[in-house]
Amino acid sequence: MKLTHPLSALMLALAGASLATPAHAVTTVTNVTTDTITSLDIDWTFYAGDTGLTGSYASANWQAWLTPTWSGSQWVVYAWYQHMVGPHGEAAESASHWIGSAVFTPGSGNFTAMMVQDHLPPDLHTAAHTGFMNANGPASADGGVPPGFSRVFVTHVPEPGQWMLLLAGLVGLAGWRRRTA
Predict the structure, then answer these.
(1) How far is 145 from 157, CA to CA, in rounded Å?
(2) At 14, which helix (H) or strand (E)?
């Protein structure tokens, strides 16, 4: 193969090096599907070097943390979140919420549903958040520690749009009942 650009050899070497060792920060956020005032849906990736280290995500609406730990032949994944604002004008919560933990053997996965949690002070109100976390990863073909993946989803309950939809349905039902009476 003839290299025509003076930097071609360097670019080829760098590309090969990036394939040999995955570049990553500690427990990286690889995709943010949703980050709104009412919902957070993010994907994380972690590697053997991330064991015991906490990765974080921060935005104007949410903060989230994920700590993966390689233990023997399994990943143990812990997750937390903090709601920074709310659809009802809530101020940032004073502390983080525990989402839960998931344990999985490479080649399988695990799912953790989060109990409905209250919005913490200064704007305390009940039954404000719900969500889940799942974690999984491929089986290792070379006997090393395979990477892991996790998805964290949290939503504000009830969503203001859900209330509006319910209210519109009730108004429509009342109008229909009135018309037939």
Answers:
(1) 38
(2) helix 8-20
For the chain, how big is the Rg over CA atoms in Å?
A: 22
How big is the CA angle at 59 (ends 58 and 64), to the nearest 5 degrees?
Answer: 40
H or E, element range at 152: strand 148-156
Q: How many C-beta neighbours within 10 Å does residue 100 have? A: 19
Identity of residue 48: A
Specify the 3-state DSSP secondary structure of 119: strand
Round to whole Å and give the CA distance between 141 and 18. Answer: 20
Q: What is the dihedral of CA 21, 24, 30, 36, to 10 degrees?
A: 180
Select the highest-mean-pLDDT range: 4-13, 20-29, 57-66, 142-151.
57-66
* Tens-digit pLDDT profile for residues 104-133: 999 999 988 888 888 888 887 777 888 999
User: Which pTM value belongs to this model?
Assistant: 0.71
- Cα first-last separation, the chain: 84
CB 131 within 8 A of CB 152: yes
What CA–CA distance (Å, rounded) separates 84 from 128?
13
Counting beta carbons within 10 angstroms of the beta carbon of residue 82, is it exposed (0 to 12), middle (13 to 18) or buried (19 or more)?
middle
SS3 149: strand
